[in-house]
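Hi everyone, sorry if this is the wrong subforum. Our group has a chain we'd like a structural model of before ordering constructs, and none of us has done structure prediction before. Sequence below.
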Amino acid sequence: MKRYRWLQADWPISMRALGKRLKARPFGSDVSHGFVIDRVRDDLLEGRYIERIEYTDTVTDPFGVELAFERVEFRQSSFRATPSGPGLELRDPPRSVQSLLNRLSEASDFEVAITAQAVDVLAWSAKFQSLAELTSVVDSLQVNSLELEPGIRAKIVIKGDRDVRSSCTTLTGPRKFSMEKIQLRFTKPSIGTIIFGNTASASLGVDDPEERILEALRDSLPR
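Answer:
Right subforum, don't worry. Here is the predicted structure as tokens:
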């Protein structure tokens, strides 16, 4: 499953200028972090931010003797910057991307504000369905902060073998809640799922070799 997340970034410089600045901060064997630029055009920049993480792993053998091993890990954050749309797309992001965001801001002379997006997942998925022209059904919803009574809230997952939106409406009624995630399940010929998150994130569990589904996700993302 491939994971994507979009953040709002209004770049103050062109993609080619940004590419030059990031290339001046390359990752290599002599640095602990840096960039690898894969592609630069007028309308996009694709690259990776790589961090070298070193730590000591300690284990105790059956006789109580501690053994220490030096470990090295490489953490990669793939991204796609564009002058239009949300501005920054993260691909299979690690748990924390703060270091990447700090370096991108630094390369832009701290003139870019990169902020999280909050989106209406129902509106996003509905627009996606009309653009993608693929047969799909909303077969799962995750509702959070459903107010059962003052001071008492519930987190609920609703699943079914058909569209569950009307059941969700019946369950929630007039009560306050937030829609966290919804899942679209495709039927033939594109069998698989997409999970839409209200943080402008999506998880694709469907074959998309030509990235047509991904492009429809980008185009349907609420602005």
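For your construct planning: The helical segments are 15-23, 98-107, 121-132, 165-172, 212-220. The chain has a mean pLDDT of 93.
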